[in-house]
TrEMBL record:
It comes from Achromobacter veterisilvae. Belongs to the ABC transporter superfamily. The keyword Hydrolase applies. The gene is cmpC_1. Keywords: ATP-binding, Cell membrane, Hydrolase, Membrane, Nucleotide-binding, Transport. The keyword Cell inner membrane does not apply. This is Bicarbonate transport ATP-binding protein CmpC. It is an enzyme of class 3 (hydrolase).
């Protein structure tokens, strides 16, 4: 009998609440993440998506539940978990190359020789197609190039898990499509697992192997859909019309329920 591979990241019963707050931010979240897959987490504003990502990243402790990284408890920042946000957050006084290398010497990172460090940075910059711009400063980069540099900074850590919080939201439509295609390439080339936080159903349909809908008050998983269509999918959105409508209907129902509860409170 073939044994299923162990998820690289496993969450069971995750919940987050703050002292003195009226309720939890999210609760009861179960999630398995495998290498080579993209999981999109959808939800309206305030559903707890970004808070969930911070917990998965080890940047914030859950109030309840368990979180395992490669079978071991995740209790803080992990060297094989990388996070990218909507703001590239590049340091303006450093070149692109040095921005990509930034963080490799932090205490929680494994010790690297100079040759290993150089190899990681070179591979990451090549992967995102910015070899020609490695000496440029952030002010000289377009929005798309800055996001590529931020992605390269993540890849230099050779992550097992890549967590992305709406990283393409501020980009124009063409650049956004290019970055979506790049993300799929990176996941395949690095055999990493990715969680993409987004509010855009079409982006989730184009990119994700699975779509998770987070909503309610507090946030709960309201539905999970597997997207079994080949990549690339940018031209297949019309074929996903029924799935899009199902997700949108579930999201609207959840929003109406939350607003109704708020009106009665």
């Amino acid at each position: 009998m073939t044994t299923a591979p162990q998820p690289v990241l496993r969450a069971r019963g995750l919940a987050l609440s703050y002292p003195g707050a009226a309720g939890a931010v999210f609760q009861g979240v179960d999630l398995d993440l495998a290498r080579g897959e993209v999981v999109a987490v959808l939800g309206a504003s305030g559903a707890g998506k970004s808070s969930l990502l911070r917990v998965l990243a080890g940047l914030q402790s859950a109030s309840a539940g368990t979180l395992l990284m490669e079978g071991a408890p995740l209790t803080g920042v992990h060297p094989r978990v990388a996070v990218a946000f909507q703001d590239p957050s590049l340091l303006p006084w450093l070149s692109l190359e040095r921005n990509v290398a930034f963080g490799l010497d932090f205490k929680h990172q494994p010790a690297l020789t100079e040759a290993q460090r150089r190899a990681r940075v070179d591979q990451a910059i090549d992967e995102v197609g910015l070899s020609h711009a490695r000496q440029l400063r952030p002010a000289q980069l377009s929005g798309g190039m800055a996001q590529r540099a931020a992605l390269a900074r993540c890849l230099a850590r050779q992550p097992s898990v890549l967590l992305l919080d709406e990283p393409f939201g501020a980009l124009d439509e063409v650049t956004r499509g290019e970055m979506q295609a790049l993300l799929r390439k990176v996941v395949a080339d690095f055999d990493t697992a990715a969680v993409l936080i987004t509010h855009d159903i079409d982006e989730a349909l184009v990119l994700a192997d699975r779509i998770v809908l987070l909503g309610g008050a507090p946030g709960r998983i309201l539905g999970v859909w597997r997207v079994d269509l080949p990549q690339p999918r940018a031209d297949l959105l019309p074929e996903m019309g029924a799935l899009r409508l199902e997700i949108l209907t579930r999201l609207r129902t959840a929003l109406r329920a939350v607003r109704g509860e708020a009106a009665l409170a």
